[in-house]
Structure of Double-GTPase 2 domain-containing protein:
Amino acid sequence: MADNIITTTKLPELEAERLADVDNLISDDIEMSDSENLREDSIRKGYQRLPSGRALSLHETYSVMAAENTVLIILIGPSECGKTTIETTLYQLFQRNSVSEFLFAGSKTIQGYEERAFYTRVNSKQEVATTPRTSRGLQEIFLHLCLFDRNKKQRINYLFADLSGEEIQAHLANVNSLTQNMSFIRHANSFTVILDGERLANKHQRNGVIEEASTILRTILDAGLYSSSTKVQLVISKYDIIEASNDANTKQYIEKNLQELQLLITKYINKISVHKVAAMPNKGSLEVGFGLDNLLTSWEYIPSYLQMNITYGVKYSLKSEFNKLFYKLAGEAHE
Ligand SMILES: Nc1nc2c(ncn2[C@@H]2O[C@H](COP(=O)(O)OP(=O)(O)OP(=O)(O)O)[C@@H](O)[C@H]2O)c(=O)[nH]1
Ligand SMILES: [Mg+2]
């Protein structure tokens, strides 16, 4: 009864609103976003806009994710710890040679890589290789690399979320803001946690490095932003600086604290690996890209049918042809 009263008294307003909607629908003046206007202009003039090659937005990753074997990697760590340099140096290594069993097979974000890599090149005429700070924001953050695995004879797409340290720190200890602003990280295949080797070599700064890493890991894991197949890589970056310091105490400190971090993670995830990396070492120390081959191998693509729990299918008879297909792909006999 009460519902009736509300409907009758509001009816003229609702009707007017409905008519206005219809007007909008059939009107020629449909409001368009800037990019749609641009696309429309280009088509009118008889040409299509080409992809920009810049880093992809979350929306733009869909075409890669939906079509092919893809691995999503989130590099985590505070400002200046070396995240972007790891991503760009890996790309640059392929300009010299293959890396382990991988061959370069393309990238949708060449421009994005080049913008970030320019100052690390010898021809930028800089004395010291530097990487520009990643600006804050979540708009165009995904770098794309397609590689061919010579051993497995398959193409794999890697998507790297090039987040700025400031963006990560803004959500560091806040489960709610992390879940709301970066919910895409729940689809990550790997969380690659970068521990800044330069700060680890400094006894006044090293405690902060470990604390930050354990806080962000705990926030992600407590927020449940992972699955049973998620992997974690603990990466000591700028390892050339630790090697150069030649300090047994530093190495001991790192070993002890890495073990504690691993203990924390194993409560949630059991696929953990530890890596020593020097993506862009100082001259005369380790080679450029030291340890990146090993890290790349740890981001291995594993098809979802190999990650599932097959005990269910063995225990109960499956009816759905879709479910049976998974078991067949995994090499399990199923009627
Ligand atoms: N010595 C040395 N320096 C490095 C190495 N890797 C990176 N760096 C330097 O560390 C600085 C910071 O590196 P970035 O890759 O920009 O760090 P980031 O984590 O992406 O920083 P934000 O984008 O601010 O979050 C740059 O000046 C790099 O040249 C390394 O292996 N050895
Ligand atoms: Mg960066």
The beta strands are 56-57, 70-76, 102-104, 140-149, 154-161, 190-195, 231-236, 272-276.
